[in-house]
Design a protein that fits this description.
The chain has 58 residues and is mainly α. The protein has helices at residues 2-18, 21-52. Helix 1 runs antiparallel to helix 2. It is rod-shaped, with a radius of gyration of 16 Å. One of its GO terms (cellular component) is plasma membrane.
C-alpha cells in the first residue's frame, strides 16, 4: 500500500513539473490519503500484535 502512495506522489510531482495543477493536486491528495491509511493500519497491526504478546517481525 505504501508503494501506491509513493506512485501517486511521483505522478503528482511529474504533473506539477509539467503544469497540470488539477492532476497534480488530485494525485497528491490520493497519495496523502493512501499514506494515512497505511499509517493507521500499521498502528492497528502493532497494537494487535502487542495484545497477542508477539514481537513484531523485522
Amino acid at each position: 500500500m505504501l508503494s501506491w502512495a509513493f506512485t501517486f506522489l511521483v505522478i503528482a510531482i511529474i504533473a506539477a513539473i509539467f503544469g497540470f495543477s488539477g492532476i497534480a493536486g488530485a494525485a497528491a491528495g490520493i497519495a496523502k490519503i493512501i499514506f494515512f491509511i497505511f499509517v493507521v493500519l500499521l498502528v492497528i497491526s502493532l497494537i494487535v500484535n502487542a495484545l497477542r504478546g508477539k514481537a513484531p517481525r523485522a
